[in-house]
Amino acid sequence: MVVFAGQGDPRRSMALLWRAGAPADDPRPRPGRRPGLSVDAIVGAAVGIADAQGMAALSMRAVGERLGTTAMALYTYVPGKSELLDLMYDQVLAELAERYPDGAGWRPAVTAWAEDGLACYLRHPWVLQVSQARPVLGPGEYRMLEALLGALRGTGLSGERLRRITGTLVNYVRGAAGAVAETRQAAAATGVSDEEWWFSRASRLAEVAPDFTDRYPLLGALEQDRAASYRPDRPGAPGDDVPYPEREARATFAAGLAVLLDGIEAAAAGG
Fold first, then answer.
1. In which region does residue 34 sit, left (phi positive, over 0), alpha (psi from -120 to 50) or beta (all else)?
2. CATH of 10-93, one of 3.40.1190.20, 2.40.50.140, 1.10.10.60, 1.20.1260.10
3. Considering only 42-46, 216-220, 267-271, which range has the smallest mean pLDDT?
4. DSSP letters along 150-190, please?
5. What is the pTM of this model?
6. pLDDT, tens digit, for every residue of 17-28?
7. What's the rounded Cα separation, in Å, for the pair 226 and 112?
């Protein structure tokens, strides 16, 4: 399910995102306001629901119940679910660091930014359902991009190339997070473990395509290498508590990021 941000009233959404205009979190008694409620409290409750149950469980009613009130009581603070989604998305991105020290060079700084982004998306996997086609334009989103630009400053790149590289890194981290998130969700969603799924289909593949390695020699060689290194229960090895498919997805993320950074380094060296 893909959800598009920025569908609410632009004036109200932008004012809430930037906490501009009317003091929505003003604790002083005002008509229609419930003691103890605030925009931040509502957004926090909504994020908690989405984290625990997914985007499908999110509704103004569910948020109200979590806060011990009604959906109607929330509308004084947040106009509706569309505006709430923008606020949730931007609050999650605001968890990321404001800057990444580049004293050891830009590569470690960009790597730290990417790893933090991956971890953030995996804490809140529902965020990956929010389309990037239309940005939220909130302070959390801009701060995340500003931090990446600060980390890339040491490359000396600027203008169009820097803008494209920034977009590439953002898309790469989101894509990698999606791959890891899906490996976590697959067993619960299907009722079949990864080991059972692969074993049942790999054995059938050998039956229906006994000439697989002849037809696809390059893939066959890669699969042989993977099978030789497949040790899902490596005793005593780092990451034993992480299932094998997720370890593979994370290793792919690290390898791909290194290649991207090599490319950025080459672009920077080329002037």
1. beta
2. 1.10.10.60
3. 267-271
4. HHHGGG---HHHHHHHHHHHHHHHHHHHHHHHHHHHHHHHH
5. 0.89
6. 999 965 445 544
7. 28
